[in-house]
Design brief:
Elements: E1 15-18, E2 21-24, H1 27-34, H2 54-57, H3 62-73, H4 84-88, H5 93-105, H6 112-134, H7 141-150, H8 153-165, H9 169-191, H10 200-219
Antiparallel strand pairs: 1-2
Helix pairs in contact: 5-6, 5-7, 5-8, 6-7, 6-10, 7-9, 8-9, 9-10
Family: Belongs to the YIP1 family.
Main location: Golgi
Subcellular location: Golgi apparatus membrane; Golgi apparatus, cis-Golgi network membrane
Length: 221
Amino acid sequence: VTSDLSGSIASPDVKLNLGGDFIKESTATTFLRQRGYGWLLEVEDDDPEDNKPLLEELDIDLKDIYYKIRCVLMPMPSLGFNRQVVRDNPDFWGPLAVVLFFSMISLYGQFRVVSWIITIWIFGSLTIFLLARVLGGEVAYGQVLGVIGYSLLPLIVIAPILLVVGSFEVVSTLIKLFGVFWAAYSAASLLVGEEFKTKKPLLIYPIFLLYIYFLSLYTGV
C-alpha cells in the first residue's frame, strides 16, 4: 500500500527575549543563526568613552584658558591670581587661539602673515627656551610656548586703541611701548625665576625684542 505523503516544513518561529519583550525573528535571521553566523547580527553597546564632548576629546578646558588669560592681562601680584599656573600647567589650544587671533587682526589683506606669525611664535619660543636652558633655567619648551603665546594678549588689547589714536604719533608710540612692556613683563615674570639670579637681563632682553617684532608685524613697521 502506497501512502501519499505530503506536507511542508515551516520555518521555526524563534523569538528573542530583550528586556522582557519578545521580538519575532525573520526567516533570514533564523537561517544565519542556525548556520553559525549569528555574530553578524550582534550589535556592540556604545562605549561611554566614545560619547565624550568634543572639547573634552581635544583636551580643551575653557575655564582654565579663561583663568590664564586673566593671569596674563593682570600680572600684578596684589590681585591674588595664581599666575604660576600659566607656566606650570601649560596647554596648547589657548596660546594657539591667542596667536591666531593676533594674526587675524594683523592681516591687512595679507594672509601669509598668519603663517609667519605662527612660525615666529614657535621658533621664537624655541629660542627663548634654549637660552633659558643654557642659563640654567628648569623650564620645558611647552611651558615657554604657552607663556609666549598667552602674553600676546596685551598687544591684542592695544590694537583697537591704536586704530583710534593712530593719527597722533606721540600717543601712538607711547601706547605701543606700553603694550610691549606689558606683554614682555607678563612673559618674563613667569619665565624668569630666581634660578637665573644675576642673569635675568640675558633672558628678559630677547623676550622684549620678540614682542617688539610681534608688534611690528601688526603695525607693518
